[in-house]
Design a protein that fits this description.
The complex is a heterodimer of chains A (788) and B (289).
Chain A lengths: L11 H7 L15 E7 L5 E6 L1 H5 L3 E5 L1 H4 L29 E2 L5 E7 L2 H10 L1 E6 L6 H5 L14 E8 L1 H10 L2 E12 L8 E7 L3 E6 L4 H11 L7 E4 L15 H13 L3 E4 L2 H7 L3 E12 L5 E13 L12 H4 L10 E10 L13 H19 L3 H8 L8 E2 L5 E2 L4 H12 L1 H13 L3 E10 L7 H6 L8 E7 L5 E5 L8 H13 L6 E4 L17 H28 L6 E4 L2 E4 L2 E7 H10 L12 E6 L8 E10 L6 E11 L6 H21 L30 E4 L17 H18 L13 H13 L8
Parallel strand pairs in A: 1-12, 10-11, 14-15, 20-21, 27-28
Antiparallel strand pairs in A: 1-5, 2-4, 2-6, 3-5, 7-15, 8-13, 9-10, 9-12, 13-14, 16-17, 18-26, 19-20, 19-25, 22-23, 23-24, 26-27
Chain B lengths: L6 E4 L3 H10 L4 E3 L5 H6 L7 E4 L9 E4 L2 E5 L4 H6 L1 H6 L1 H9 L3 H6 L2 H7 L6 H7 L3 E6 L2 E6 H4 E3 L2 E2 L6 E7 L6 E9 L6 E11 L5 E9 L6 E2 L1 H7 L6 H7 L17 H25 L1
Parallel strand pairs in B: 1-3, 2-3
Antiparallel strand pairs in B: 4-5, 5-10, 6-7, 6-10, 8-9, 11-12, 12-13, 13-14
Helix pairs in contact in B: 5-8, 10-11, 11-12
The chains are: A alpha+beta (788), B alpha+beta (289).
C-alpha cells in the first residue's frame, strides 16, 4: 500500500508563513497592552548606581524596575545542566544587574510605558553611573594569573573542568605512535541571529495567573523554569510559543527579559509586551561556539589512527546560560572520536567566565566544535603520512559490521555505514577526476582544493536516564496525544515545539498512514502548554526521533482500536481487516467497507461498540528512547582560492546525509540546505569580535556577515538510509547535520587548495584578506616556513 | 531601533521644502529614507524635523539634456540602473546603481539621498566623480553648482550647508570611442564597497588611450580620482598588462584606510586589481564601439 512516509509532501506550514498569515509573538496585540524596554549595560565590567527618578517622572511611564524592585520577588535565572564531576560553579544570575554589570548588554533596568516609543525614550532617561572595573573577554586571557575576576565565587574564572576518555591510555598511544600531528584551533564565537528576535507578551489572568506568549523552542521548559522564578503554580502559568521565526538553540534558554515581562504584567495588572530590537539581539541573546583548542592525533604510517587528545578552553560568557555547561562537555567531548575507531581518547575542557554575552547551544551545539577538530586532524594526519585523505578515513571508519559500536567515551553508536556514505559522495563529486584536475591546475599556479567531512553526530536527545546521569535537570522523553474527532478529523497534540523543522507536515504523514485517514484531515497541535501534553521541546534534533516515537506509538494505539471497532462493525475477525486507500474492509472483500471517518463516528456514537471497548477514539503515548541516534554522512566541497584576491569560490558542494529512514525528502533537504548555509557561514564569513574595550564590534548586520543568498553555492543533496534500530520509525535527526558537516568540509578544501604552499591550517572565518596574506607570505618564502 | 521623537512635514514643492528647512535649524531632508532612517532608529542621529520631499515631482527623473545626463535627486537607483541611455553612455553609473543594496533598496532609495549622505563606501559617489558630475544645490538664496570633486569633504560630510537641498546631478558624455566600467568588492555583511572603482577610457583613432579616468571609492575617507593612473594610461593600448602597469601608483597622494574586515594594505591591493580590470573593460568596450 502506498504510504505518505517517504514522499515529498509539501510543507503544510508554508502557506500561512509565506502569505504573512503566521502568528508570531509580536503579532499578539491585547487590549490595554503596554510596552517594556530594557536599559542594558554599555560597559563590560563596572560597578553601577542606577537613578530612575527622571524616567519614572516621564509622561506615559508606568513603572521602572531595578534590581532593588525585584529582589526577593523574581528568582535568579537558573543553570539547568549541572555537568557532574566537573567542579561546576554556577554563579548567581539576577534578572537585573545588582551593583555590578558583567557584560555589554546585561539588563540593568526595565521600563514599562504606554507605547513602545515612550518606553524607548524612558529607557534612555534612566541614569546609570558606571564605575569601570577591569574586564576580560578572551577565555585564555581570563585564565592567566592576575586576570580580572568575573565572579567572586569563581576563582580564576574557572567554571568547570571536565574530562572524557582515558588519559593514561592516550599518553601511551602517543608515546608509542609513529606519527603525531597537532593543531591549534579557534572555533570562533557566532551570533545565532534568528530572523525573529526574542519577544514576549505577558497577560494577567484571574486569580493571579498569567499567560505568556514567547519565542521559545520549549514552552513546557519555559513554564517549568518560570514557575519557579516567579513562584507561580504551573497550573496558573500558561506559556504559548506561537509561530517562532527561527531559534537555532538561542530560544532554548529562559532569559532575564521574559521573566521580567511576566513579572511586570503581574505587578501592573495589564498585558506587557517586549520585542527585542536587532541591536539588542546581538548582545542580549546567547552566542554560540567560542572555543580555543589544542588538539593532537597520533597513529602509524600505514594510516591507522591510534589516539586523539583535546585540550579545549570554552568561553562561557559572564553567566552560565540554561543548558550552557552541557554544550562544550557532554555534547562536545563524547563525540570527539567521530566516525573513527580510535582506541585512545583524552578530552579535557575548561569552561571559563569572561565579560561577554553568555554562550549556549547554537545549531549543532558542541558537535560542530568536535567534528571540526577531528576532521581537521584526520586531514592533517593524512597529509603528514602522504596518504589520500579519503583513504585514511576509509582505513579508520567504524566498520558497518561493528554496530552497535561503543566508543571509548561511553557512547553507543546505533547504526551506520560510513564508507558507503563516503563512497556516494566521492562518486558524486568525481573524486579521482577532481584530483587530476587539481594537479593540472596546480601546474598553472591555481589553487583548487577538495575537502571531505565524514561526520557522525549524536542527537535525538535522548534517554532520560542518561540525561540524569549527565546532570541535565530535566527528562528527555516526549509525549503525544492522537485525538480523533467525531467527524474523523484528527488532532496530533505534541509536547515538542517545532518552529521550522516541518513536523506539522511529517507528523501528519505518520498519523495519516497509521490511521488510513486523509492527510488533509490530520492537524498537528503544538506550542501551548494549556493545549498540549508535557514535552521537553525542540532542540538537539530530537523532535522527529523522540517526539515522532511518541506520535507513532499513540497513532498505533488509535489505529488498533479503529481496526478492532471496524472488525466488529463489519462482523469480521480483527486480523482479517485491512486498510486499503483509506477504507477498512475484510481482506479480499473490498465491496463492504468503512472509511476512517465512519469508524470515528461510530467510536463516538458508541451505539455498537464491542463488549468492553471504551467510547471515543484517542490515545496518548509517552516515549523515552533507549539511546541517542547517530546520523552520519560525508560532505565533499570543491573550492578554488583566487590567487589574486584570496576569495574562496565554492565550485561543488555535495552533501550525503544519512538520517535513517526519511519521512519527507523535501523537508530533509531543506534542513540540510539551512544547516550547510550556517556551516559555510562559520567557515567563511561569520565571527563575533570583542574589541579591547570589551565592546562587541560586530553588533549589527553591517559588520556581522550572515550567509546571503548570493553567496550560497548550489548544494547537491544525496542520502543513504540506514535505519536507527531502536526507535519506532527508524529515523534519526537531520536538523543539525548540515551545520556540523559543512564547516570542516570547506576549511579542509581551502587547506587542501593551499597545501602546495605548506599551509596546514587556516583560522575561521576564512576571509579573502586572511587567505591573501597566506598567499602573499608563501610567495616570498620556502613552503616549509609558511604556517597560516 | 526606535528613533527619538521628531516632527514631520511633507513638502509638495521645492520652495515649500526650502521654507520648512529654513524655519527649523537642524531640520533634515527625507527622501527615500534608506540612509537617514537607520541612523535615526539607531539613535546615532537626532533631528527636530524631517522634511519629506518624496512627493516633490520636479526633483525626479533621469533625462538627457543637450547631450548631458541629468539625474534628479529623487530618481531611484533602479531608474538609473534600468535606463537605456545611462547604460549606453554612462555605463559605470548604471552599473554602480545596480550594485546599491538589494532590489527593495534600489526601488526606494534615491540618488540624491545617496549622494548627500556622503558614505565613502557607497556606490554612486565613485561613479559621479568619474563623470565629473556637477551637483545642483538649492537654498533660499537660489541655486549653486558644486563639482563632484568638491562635494564630498569626509565620511558623511558634504558641501551641503544648513537649509540646502541637492536637487540634481549633471554629467557630460564621455564622447566618441569612449566607454566606462564599474567594479566593486562588496563587504559580505553590508554589501557596501570595501573597494569600488569606476574607470573610463576614450581612444584615439589608433586605438590608444586619449583620455582615461579612474575614480576609487571605499578605500579612503573620500572617493578620489587617481590622477597618476589616469596620466599613465594616456597613449597606451588599454590591454590588461598595460592597465596593471598604469595603476601601480593608484594611491599617489592618498592614504588608504583599513577596518576590522579589510586592512589598508588589502584594500589598496584590491583597488589596484579592480582598477586595472575596470580600465581594461572600459578600453575593450571603447574599442568595440
Amino acid at each position: 500500500m502506498p504510504t505518505l512516509f517517504g514522499t515529498p509532501v509539501r510543507r503544510r506550514e508554508d502557506a500561512r508563513l509565506i502569505r504573512g498569515e503566521g502568528l508570531y509573538t509580536d503579532d499578539v496585540r491585547l487590549p490595554d497592552m503596554v510596552y517594556a524596554a530594557f536599559v542594558r549595560s554599555t560597559h563590560p565590567s563596572a560597578r553601577i548606581r542606577v537613578d530612575a527618578s527622571a524616567a519614572r517622572a516621564l509622561p506615559g511611564v508606568l513603572a521602572v524596575f531595578t534590581a532593588d524592585d525585584v529582589a526577593g520577588r523574581v528568582g535568579d535565572v537558573p543553570t539547568a545542566w549541572l555537568v557532574p564531576d566537573s567542579g561546576l560553579r554556577t554563579p548567581p544570575r539576577p534578572v537585573l544587574a545588582r551593583d555590578v554589570v558583567r557584560y555589554v548588554g546585561e539588563p540593568i533596568a526595565m521600563v514599562v510605558a504606554r507605547t513602545r516609543a515612550l518606553a524607548a525614550d524612558a529607557a534612555s532617561a534612566v541614569n546609570v553611573a558606571y564605575e569601570p572595573l577591569p574586564h576580560v573577554t578572551d577565555a585564555r586571557a581570563a585564565l592567566a594569573p592576575g586576570a580580572p575576576q568575573v565572579h567572586a565565587g569563581v576563582p580564576g574564572n574557572v567554571l568547570f573542568t571536565w574530562h572524557a576518555g582515558d588519559r593514561e591510555a592516550t599518553d601511551r598511544a602517543f608515546a608509542e605512535a609513529e606519527v603525531e600531528v597537532s593543531l591549534s584551533i579557534r572555533n570562533q564565537r557566532l551570533v545565532p541571529a534568528a530572523m525573529e528576535p526574542r519577544t514576549a507578551v505577558a497577560a494577567p489572568t484571574p486569580e493571579g495567573g498569567l499567560t505568556l506568549w514567547t519565542t521559545s523552542q520549549n514552552p513546557h521548559i519555559a513554564r517549568f523554569v518560570l514557575s519557579g522564578m516567579l513562584s507561580l503554580s504551573e497550573q496558573r502559568l500558561r506559556v504559548v510559543a506561537p509561530d517562532v521565526g527561527g531559534g537555532f538553540g538561542s530560544k532554548i534558554p529562559v532569559y532575564p527579559d521574559e521573566a521580567m515581562v511576566a513579572h511586570a504584567a503581574r505587578v501592573l495588572g495589564v498585558p506587557v509586551k517586549w520585542t527585542e530590537t536587532r541591536s539588542e539581539a546581538f548582545v542580549a541573546t546567547i552566542h554560540g561556539r567560542d572555543q580555543v583548542q589544542d588538539v593532537a592525533m597520533c597513529g602509524r604510517r600505514d594510516g591507522t589512527i591510534t589516539g586523539i587528545r583535546v585540550r579545549a578552553t570554552a568561553n562561557m560568557g559572564a553567566y552560565l546560560s540554561l543548558a550552557a555547561p552541557g554544550v562544550p562537555t557532554i555534547l562536545f567531548g563524547l563525540i570527539v572520536p567521530g566516525a573513527y575507531r580510535i582506541g585512545a581518547v583524552d578530552v579535557e575542557v575548561v569552561g571559563v567566565a569572561t565579560h561577554t554575552t553568555p554562550t549556549d547551544a547554537y545549531r549543532g551545539a558542541g558537535r560542530p566544535e568536535a567534528t571540526f577538530l577531528v576532521e581537521r586532524l584526520v586531514d592533517t594526519f593524512a597529509r603528514r603520512i602522504g596518504m589520500d585523505a579519503a583513504e585514511v578515513r576509509r582505513r579508520n571508519f567504524v566498520p558497518a559490521s561493528a554496530f552497535p559500536y561503543a566508543t571509548p567515551t561511553g557512547l553507543v553508536y546505533d547504526s551506520g555505514d560510513y564508507a558507503a556514505a563516503m563512497d556516494r559522495a566521492l562518486e558524486a563529486v568525481g573524486y579521482e577526476a577532481m584530483r587530476r584536475r587539481q594537479e593540472d591546475l596546480r601546474r598553472e599556479g591555481r589553487y583548487l582544493g577538495i575537502g571531505l567531512s565524514t561526520y557522525v553526530e549524536v542527537c535525538g536527545l535522548g534517554p532520560s536516564k542518561v540525561a540524569g546521569a549527565v546532570g541535565f535537570q530535566g527528562g528527555l522523553w516526549e509525549s503525544a496525544t492522537v485525538r480523533v474527532h467525531p467527524s474523523g478529523k484528527v488532532a496530533v497534540i505534541i509536547g515538542a515545539s517545532p518552529h521550522g523543522q516541518g513536523e506539522e507536515t511529517t507528523f501528519a504523514q505518520i498519523v495519516a498512514d497509521a490511521l488510513g485517514a486523509p492527510f488533509e484531515d490530520v492537524e498537528v497541535v503544538h506550542g501551548d502548554t494549556a493545549a498540549t501534553p508535557m514535552g521537553w521541546g525542540t532542540y538537539g534534533s530530537r523532535t522527529t526521533p523522540v517526539g515522532g516515537g511518541a506520535v507513532s506509538l499513540a497513532a498505533r494505539r488509535v489505529a488498533d482500536k479503529a481496526r478492532r471497532l471496524a472488525a466488529h462493525l463489519l462482523e469480521a475477525a480483527e486480523e482479517d481487516v485491512v486498510v486499503t486507500d483509506g477504507r477498512y474492509h475484510v481482506a479480499g472483500a473490498p465491496a463492504r467497507s468503512l472509511s476512517f471517518a465512519d469508524v470515528a463516528l461510530q467510536a463516538h456514537l458508541a451505539w455498537r461498540l464491542p463488549d468492553g471497548m471504551e467510547p471515543g477514539l484517542e490515545a496518548s503515548a509517552f516515549y523515552d528512547p533507549e539511546n541517542f541516534v547517530f546520523p552520519f554522512g560525508c560532505h565533499a566541497c570543491v573550492v578554488e582560492v583566487d590567487r589574486n584576491t584570496g576569495e574562496v569560490r565554492i565550485l561543488r558542494y555535495v552533501a550525503v546525509d544519512d538520517c535513517g529512514r526519511i519521512i519527507n525528502p523535501m523537508i530533509v533537504d531543506g534542513q540540510v540546505h539551512g544547516g550547510v548555509a550556517q556551516g559555510l557561514g562559520q567557515a567563511l564569513w561569520e565571527g563575533a569580535v570583542y574589541d579591547e574595550s570589551g565592546q562587541l564590534v560586530t553588533a549589527s548586520f553591517l559588520d556581522y556577515a550572515l550567509p546571503r543568498a548570493r553567496l550560497m553555492p548550489h548544494i547537491e543533496t544525496l542520502h543513504t538510509e540506514t535505519p536507527s534500530p531502536h526507535n519506532p520509525l527508524g529515523v534519526k535527526g537531520v536538523g543539525e547535520t548540515g551545520t556540523i558537516a559543512a564547516t570542516p568540509a570547506v576549511v579542509n578544501a581551502v587547506v587542501d587548495a593551499l597545501a602546495p604552499l605548506g599551509v596546514e591550517h587556516v583560522d575561521m572565518p576564512m576571509t579573502p584578506e586572511r587567505l591573501w596574506r597566506i598567499l602573499s607570505r608563501a610567495q616570498g618564502r620556502a613552503p616549509e616556513e609558511v604556517r597560516a | 531601533m526606535i528613533a527619538e521623537a521628531f516632527d514631520y512635514e511633507r513638502a509638495d514643492s521645492l520652495e515649500a521644502a526650502l521654507a520648512a528647512l529654513a524655519r527649523r535649524p537642524g531640520a533634515k531632508v527625507l527622501a527615500g529614507g534608506h540612509s537617514l532612517l537607520p541612523l535615526l532608529k539607531l539613535r546615532l542621529a537626532q533631528v527636530p524635523l524631517l522634511v519629506d520631499i518624496d512627493g516633490v515631482g520636479e526633483l525626479g527623473g533621469v533625462r538627457v539634456e543637450d547631450g548631458d545626463l541629468v539625474v534628479g535627486a529623487l530618481a531611484r537607483h533602479r531608474d538609473v540602473a534600468d535606463s537605456e541611455a545611462v547604460r549606453r553612455g554612462w555605463t559605470a553609473l548604471a552599473q554602480a546603481a545596480s550594485h546599491v543594496g538589494d532590489p527593495q533598496v534600489r526601488s526606494r532609495g534615491t540618488v540624491g539621498g545617496n549622494l548627500a549622505h556622503g558614505d565613502p563606501a557607497s556606490d554612486l559617489p565613485t561613479a559621479v566623480l568619474l563623470f565629473d558630475g556637477v551637483l545642483t544645490v538649492a537654498s533660499g538664496a537660489g541655486l549653486r553648482q558644486v563639482s563632484a570633486r568638491d562635494f564630498w569633504l569626509g565620511p558623511f560630510a558634504t558641501a551641503l550647508g544648513e537649509g540646502e537641498i541637492l536637487t540634481a546631478v549633471r554629467m557630460a558624455p564621455l564622447g566618441d570611442r569612449a566607454a566606462s566600467a564599474y567594479r566593486k568588492f562588496p563587504h559580505p555583511a553590508s554589501g557596501y564597497a570595501v573597494v569600488s572603482v569606476a574607470a573610463a577610457v576614450r581612444l584615439d583613432g589608433e586605438g590608444r588611450v586619449a583620455e582615461a579616468r579612474v575614480a576609487v571609492g571605499g578605500a579612503t575617507y573620500v572617493p578620489f580620482r587617481a590622477a597618476a593612473a589616469e596620466a599613465a594610461m594616456v597613449g597606451v593600448r588599454p590591454d590588461p598588462p598595460a592597465c596593471r602597469e598604469a595603476v601601480a601608483d593608484l594611491f599617489a597622494g592618498q592614504e588608504p584606510a583599513g577596518d576590522m574586515y579589510a586592512s589598508a594594505d588589502y584594500r589598496a591591493h584590491i583597488a589596484r586589481l579592480y582598477a586595472a580590470d575596470a580600465l581594461a573593460a572600459a578600453g575593450a568596450a571603447a574599442a568595440a564601439g
